[in-house]
Amino acid sequence: MSRLIHALEPLWWGLFVTGTFLSALLLPGVLLVLCLGAPLGFVSAEAVSYERMHGLVASLPGRLVALALVVTCLWNGAHHLRHFNIDLGGLSRDIPVATVLYGIAGVGSLLALATVIGL
Question: Taking 90 as the threshold, does the pLDDT of residue 21 lie above it?
Fold first, then answer.
């Protein structure tokens, strides 16, 4: 398992970088509109209604963006937590921690894919 985790290191870093980029690019706007704009009245309630948001996410580009955002954020978080563990002196337990974290990110990615397909 150790060799597999280390052999796939470029994949983990690629997912980490993509997750960081998409998180920094898309999440602030989404959170600003949905969490602050709508409750404070800057964005009309009709613009962020369930029907409109569902229509947006149910389209093919919306599905791809939602899937990319969720999946890459999961992998980004897993990689951050793995290296946080290493920074705290957990190099001896890196392989079990990496296996668990990447496993959780993988399962979460599959659940996100199933949810997006089911929209």
Answer: no
